[in-house]
């Protein structure tokens, strides 16, 4: 397998496809502010000072339950970063970590090493500020203390060691490189990797105000082909639907709108006929579905 195949995206910002990503995710503004400031500060300090002074690895960790927008925020970061750099450009690279892992003895370590110490450095050696997304990073850096003896722990250790070695190497040689890692289950991530994160930012499920904003945003976005949904987005009692969905992730909240459309053949044929009552019924159905609300890997919003 060619390690280049695990790179799913490699593009230079500003790219129109990424323009709206940042604003589509409804989170506390402090989360976005901290992400952007952390990336900028890392680029600034690592270019000017030695690692021994800053202790910065160029690694941002986003953690929290699935569906809260971690991956989309990471994808949007490079676009936001571009406008703040000297040349108004930034590169974005996305890696599929699952493609690096292999059941064949020693292959995972070789692939990780080739990707992170050879292939990616060759793509970013022009000095352009670059954000590399490692989504669901627990796939790459399994907690070695929890590795099962039946799951070839030697290879687990070697793959994790390869990631850590690569991060340490790139920290010093490529100060223009920022890794953004996401994790749904930080308990499954190796402690040595967690300790290298310059910042660890929790992305929680939204409260009632956040849910309301997501519902409004979704309905307004759908109102271009179905204008009546714009009026529904401004319906005062939409707040009651939001209260019902408080605590659910953004992905499920958006799908509640389509869940409401599934309530009758009329709204399937004409989604613009969706009513507040349809949404209220759908929200209660989502709330009462026991398979949606889970304990997210014992994370509990802490590291």
Arithmetic mean of pLDDT: 89
- Portion of residues within helices: 40-55%
Major sheet description: 6 strands, mixed
Strand arrangement across the biggest beta sheet: 1-3-4-5-2-6
Structural class given helices, strands, pairing?
alpha/beta
User: Radius of gyration in whole Å, from Cα?
Assistant: 21 Å
Order of helices and strands: EHHHEHEHEHEHEHHHHHH
The CATH topology of the largest domain corresponds to Rossmann fold
**Strand content bin:** 5-15%
Tell me what the structure shows.
The chain is of the alpha/beta class. The protein folds into two domains: 3-202, Rossmann fold (3-Layer(aba) Sandwich), CATH 3.40.50; 208-288, no CATH class. Helix content is 48%, strand content 11%. The chain has 13 helices and six strands. It has helices spanning 21-24, 29-48, 51-54, 70-82, 107-124, 153-173, 191-196, 208-222, 228-233, 238-245, 250-261, 265-269, 276-288; strands at 7-13, 59-63, 90-95, 130-134, 177-183, 199-202. Strands 1-3-4-5-2-6 form a six-stranded mixed beta sheet, sandwiched between helices. It is elongated and about 60 Å long.
